[in-house]
Amino acid sequence: MTAVRTTRTRFTGRTALVTGGGSGLGRAIALAFAAEGANVVVAGRTEATLKETVTLIEEAGGTALAVTADVARSADLAALVAAAVERFGSLDVAVNNAGILRAGQPVADLPEEDWRTMLDINVTGVLLALQAEVGQMRAQSTGGAIVNISSTLGAHTSVAGTAAYGATKAAVSALGRAAAVEHIRDGVRINTVSPGSSDTTMSFRPGETEADRAARVKETNPLGRVSTTGEVAAAVLYLASDESGSVVGADLVIDGGAAA
Q1: Can you state the angle between helices 125-137 and 74-88, rounded to 10 degrees?
Q2: Which tens digit of pLDDT belongs to each residue from 8-26?
Q3: Residue 198: which residues within 8 A CB-CB, separation 6 or more?
Q4: 15-251 falls under which CATH superfamily?
Q5: Which of 14, 44, 75, 216 has the fewest Cβ atoms surrounding its Cβ within 10 A?
Q6: How far apart are the C-alpha atoms of 25 and 200, rounded to whole Å?
C-alpha cells in the first residue's frame, strides 16, 4: 500500500493520532493524513506492523511516530497521548479505529470470552481513548477533532452471527453522539464514521477469495462493490478537517447503500 500523493495541505502542522494504525483501514487513514501534511502517530499492539506504516509514510516524505499501546488499558492511552504531545507539541486530531471482530456464532452460543474481548477493545477502548484525547484537547487553546470508527453493523443493520460485534459498534455510535454534545463547548468536535464492507480482511467470509467476495457483494450491495479504504479515509479526513466545522455528533455511513 502506498500513500496517495495530493496537493491538499489541510493538516499541515497538525498532529493526527490513529489507533489500529498498523494495517487495513487504520493504515490507509494514517497514510491519508500524512499525505495532507499531518504529523502522524500510529498506535496498536503489534510493533512490527506499526513500523511498516511509519516506513510507508516516511518514504512518501511524511513524518510519523509508532507507539505500541493496548486501547483496553487506560495507562497505555495516557502514555500514547503524552508521547504524541512530547514529540509533536499537540494533539489536534484523533481517530479511534482499533477494533476486533469475532463472528460466526448466534447469541445463544456466543463464547463469553469473545463477548468480553470485543467489549474491552471495541467499547471500553474507545471510551478510554476519548478520555485521554479529550483531556489533552480541551487543555489546548486550539481544541481538536475526534473521529470514532464504528460500523454499519449494529446501529444501522444486522447480519447473523455478528450480534456481539454489532452491539459493540452500536455502543460506539451512541457513545460518540453523547460525547460530541458534552464536549463541543470544550473545543473538541467529535463525529463517527460507520463503514460497511470495505477492502480489508474483515470483509471476507471464512474461506472466501477476493473473487468470491466480489461476486457476493455485486449481488447484495446496491453499489455492487466494497468501498475502498481510500473512500473511507476521505470521509474521516473530511470530518477531522475545518471544512466540517459545524458537523457535530454525526454518524456518517460509508457502505454503498447497503443500509439505506
Answers
A1: 40
A2: 799 999 999 999 999 999 9
A3: 25, 226, 227, 228, 229, 231, 232, 254
A4: NAD(P)-binding Rossmann-like Domain (3.40.50.720)
A5: 75
A6: 7
In the residue annotation, 51 being an active-site residue is answered as no
Report if pTM > 0.90. yes
- CA atoms within a 13 Å half-sphere pointing along the CA-CB vector of 244: 23
When the pLDDT of each residue in the chain is averaged and rounded to a whole number, the result is 93
| 3-state SS class at 235 | helix
Q: Hey, what amino acid is at 89?
A: G
Catalytic, out of 151, 165, 194, 244? 165
Which amino acid type is present at position 31? L
Q: Given the residues 151, 169, 173, 244, select the one marked as catalytic.
A: 169
User: Do residues 190 and 249 make contact, with C-beta atoms less than 8 angstroms apart?
Assistant: yes
What H or E segment, with its residue span, contains residue 150?
none
In sequence order, what are the residues at sequence separation of 6 or more whose Cβ sits closer than 8 angstroms to the Cβ of residue 200?
Answer: 24, 25, 229
